[in-house]
Amino acid sequence: MNEVMLDDEATYAKYDPSGMGKRIRELPTVILDAWQAALAFELPDDYKSVDKILILGMGGSAIGGDLVRRLLLNESKAQITVLREYNLPAWVDERTLVIASSYSGGTEETLSAFNQALSTPAKKLVITTGGKLLDIARDNGVPAFVFKYDAQPRAAIAWGVFPLLNFITRLGLAPDKAAEVAEAALVTEQFARKIEPSKALPVNQAKEMAYNFYGRIPVIYGSDLAAEVAYRWRTQLNENSKHWAFAQALPELNHNAVVGYEFPADLISKMQVVMLRSNHQLDRNIKRYQITGELLARAGARVTFTEGRGIAPIAQMMTLILMGDYTSYYLAMLNQVDPTPVEVISYLKGRLAESN
């Protein structure tokens, strides 16, 4: 392997013709763009009466719901649930706000659940760029927040997070987050300058992490607000890097996964564990990180850590996400693959369409 590969501009020209790297670098700007666009969107006043929020979505359109649910877990007056299923749960009622989030507007699981929601007394809202979902919303008088951002759904992460966060807070269901959003954009921009492609090894931490993952199986651990971020890392490594990866959350993994570090013994040298750390983790989970790291080291596993930046939870979360996104991007370069196409998913959707 060429150790200077990630510091060579030609690498990115060759393996990133669609510009995934540019989308990743835009995150700080898009955070503010998405927040401002959401501020201009009019919400029905009676939506303030809900006590449950159900977010429908899949893949890159669902992770935004996961992140918002975590951010507001201890603050939201409404229970927030993310549904990655075809069928609507039976508990949906007139005090439920059903939000269908689909970048393309054509996600079949989301369309199925949303069509079922139309026959319920629930309040409804759509977040999309267009497609069939927008047509259904307009035909049924459902408010639709429509945005334009030319990217893969997973690269539109800010559009999945910040309109949701804006709407929930503006409905009075959680405290205002405007100041925290501004901090997140600023800190994420500062961090992006340190890990963008122009920043060379050894100071570029994301490039270093990608080399740690190269030829190995990444296992991402997170707790508290980093639990959902660990899942984001895993999916980005899958889709951008075309790479096996796994994610687990503490404290749950301390009740099962830690027992499995023993076998198969010949795979241990192929594992690379990274623990995502935040200044908003519980003291007990920090202690669990320490002990879990000791258990991994005892088993002979490679372990490293990475930290969130900033003060508020949103900044911590978004900088950890940026670190994961860039790591997956650099690993794609090392794997010599274009990070943008997801041909296997396209194939799967095509096969499913044949059975309709």
Uncertain ranges? none
How far is it from the N-terminal to the C-terminal residue, by CA? 46 Å
Order of helices and strands: HHHEHEEHEHEHHHEHEEHEHH
Per DSSP E runs of 2 or more residues, the count of β-strands stands at: 9
Strand order of the largest sheet: 2-1-3-4-5
Note the total helix count: 13
Cα Rg: 20 Å
User: Under CATH, the topology of the largest domain is which?
Assistant: Rossmann fold
- What shape does the CA trace take? globular
How many strands, what sense, and barrel or not for the largest sheet?
5 strands, parallel
- CATH class assignment of the largest domain: Alpha Beta
Average predicted local confidence, pLDDT: 96
Oligomer: single chain
Report the helical percentage.
Answer: 40-55%
Q: What number of domains?
A: 2
Architecture (CATH level 2) name of the largest domain: 3-Layer(aba) Sandwich
* Beta-strand content bin: 5-15%
Helix/strand-derived category reads alpha/beta
What is the CATH superfamily label of the largest domain? Answer: Glucose-6-phosphate isomerase like protein, domain 1
Primary descriptors:
356 residues; alpha/beta; Rossmann fold; 2 domains; 5-stranded parallel β-sheet; 4-stranded parallel β-sheet; 13 helices; 9 strands; globular
